[in-house]
Design the sequence.
């Protein structure tokens, strides 16, 4: 995991802290791998906007979980427009940080080649264009993984292309790719602590 906290000092040039208090943006994709754990982590975050891919909206039901368990202050944006209309918020400095977790192999592959045709990939692209630091928890981090299917644990074997895409994402500016839930928690805590310290 690279440097966390200030991401080398970047805070998002589009952000004007005096204009409004920026929130945390979180893109949720259709990955069963650490889906429940990511939702649990989101439940502890104040001032959260969640961008839900179409697949994530299906997967949440398959795991019998519910977006309604998020804090009442959380705002949920679903993938219902071709233009990904909610991403306009990134241009107005609404977000200090983006988390993409968990990130499917599909979303990671698209992000790596610059495709933005879903809400999650659009949010990632706009965060990059607005210089909003991003933390990605990619699913495909090792050649062999134990993952939770709706009816229990299964083994999956990410392909060379999946692992290669995760590695390529690690080279992006202002992007930190984490390999585990513990690293995601650490990266998020460090980022929030850095923002707190720099605003006081
Ligand atoms: C129950 C279930 C679990 C899934 N888990 C994963 C996963 O762990 N990793 C992954 O890359 N795709 C997983 N998928 C497949 C993705 O949901 C699918 O590729 C989808 O098109 C991704 O869309 P998104 O990247 O826009 O969210 C899962 C699908 C289902 C139905």
Sequence:
């Amino acid at each position: 995991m690279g440097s966390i906290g200030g991401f080398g000092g970047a805070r998002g040039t589009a952000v004007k802290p005096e204009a409004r208090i920026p929130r945390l943006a979180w893109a949720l994709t259709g990955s069963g791998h650490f889906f429940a754990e990511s939702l649990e982590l989101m439940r502890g975050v104040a001032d959260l906007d969640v961008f839900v891919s179409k697949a994530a909206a299906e997967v949440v039901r398959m795991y019998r979980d519910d977006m309604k368990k998020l804090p009442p202050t959380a705002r949920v944006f679903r993938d219902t427009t071709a233009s990904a209309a909610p991403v306009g918020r990134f241009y107005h400095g609404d977000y200090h940080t983006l988390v993409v977790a968990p990130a499917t192999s599909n979303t990671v592959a698209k992000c790596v080649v610059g495709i933005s045709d879903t809400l999650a990939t659009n949010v990632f692209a706009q965060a990059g264009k607005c210089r909003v630091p991003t933390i990605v928890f990619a699913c495909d981090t090792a050649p062999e993984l134990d993952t939770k299917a709706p009816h229990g644990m299964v083994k999956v074997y990410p392909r060379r292309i999946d692992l290669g895409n995760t590695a390529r994402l690690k080279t992006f500016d202002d992007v930190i790719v984490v390999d585990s839930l513990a690293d995601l928690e650490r990266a998020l805590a460090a980022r929030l602590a850095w923002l707190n310290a720099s605003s006081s």
Summary: The domain at 23-192 is CATH 3.40.50.1950 (Rossmann fold). The chain has one domain: 23-192. Residues 29-33, 53, 55-56, 59, 62, 104-107, 118, 120, 139, 147, 150 surround flavin mononucleotide (CB under 6 Å).
